[in-house]
Every structure is written in structure tokens, then in C-alpha cells.
Amino acid sequence: MSITVTSILVSIVYVAVLRWAWRVLNWVWFRPKKVERCLRQQGFAGKPYRLLFGDWKEKSDMLKEARTKPIGLSDALLPRVMPFLHQLVKDYGKNSFMWVGPKPRVNIMNPDQIKDVFMKINEYQKPSHPLLKHLACGLGSHEGENGLNIER
């Protein structure tokens, strides 16, 4: 039995495709489900993860519906401006999470916990894209202690 160049190339392509498929499956399903389990163990509540798009469709549908209704001067603004967040807090409480694609967005509304997050600035890093530093500069793009220094 001889090994041909074609069989070697087919094997390499096969391994590369399997590796790529595993990475995609991990990004789209396994990692979000693991993160969801961890968040629930820490006491956060929220909707279960939905494949790839998360809560985007429901969020955009609620926003479209809220904008079609007229608003009065004495009406609350939050149900009109952020209806999905308003409904999420009503349904799941102030410590909840929502899905933005395959990534969770955690909502913390307890002042003591917010203070704890701001005091431990190096432990809670902001997610960023490598090109973000080149495209945007300002308070939102700084990490660590540089993010809190305000020059006069």
C-alpha cells in the first residue's frame, strides 16, 4: 500500500476542516452554554441562549413595537426607549443577563455590586476588538487605571 500525495493532501484538508468546524461549534454553542451555566450558578437569571443571534430578534421586535405607540409627557421613558431591558428586569430581576449574539451582557443594578466592579477595574476587563484602539479613542476605549484618570 503506497501513500500518495493526493491522499496526504486530502488528509490535511480533512483535518483542517474538522478543526475549523470544531472552533465554530465551540464559538456558537458550547462556550455560550458553559457561560450561561456559570452565570446561573452565580445567581444571575435570564433567557436561555438561542443559537447565534441570542436575543437580537426579540429585542428589535420589542423596540419597533414600542416606537409605534404614542407616548405622553407623564409616561415612563424606559419602556419606550429600552423595552427589552425593561421587560428583562421585570421578568428576571435586577441581576440578569441577555444575549448579544453568542456573548452575554450582564445587567447589575445593585449599587454595592456596581461599586465593587468599579473598584476592581483590572479584574473586570472590557471586551474589545484589536482595531478598536485605532478607530476610537476616549474614556470607553481605555483599560485599567487609565480609564479612570480624568485630566483637567
TrEMBL record:
The keyword Heme applies. This is Cytochrome P450. Keywords: Heme, Iron, Membrane, Metal-binding, Monooxygenase, Oxidoreductase, Transmembrane, Transmembrane helix. The keyword Cytoplasm does not apply. InterPro entries: Cyt_P450_sf, Cytochrome_P450_Monooxygen. PANTHER family: CYTOCHROME P450 72A11-RELATED, CYTOCHROME P450 FAMILY MEMBER. It is a single-pass membrane protein. Belongs to the cytochrome P450 family. It comes from the Eukaryota. One of its GO terms (molecular function) is iron ion binding. It is found in: Membrane. The chain crosses the membrane at residues 6-30. One of its GO terms (cellular component) is membrane.
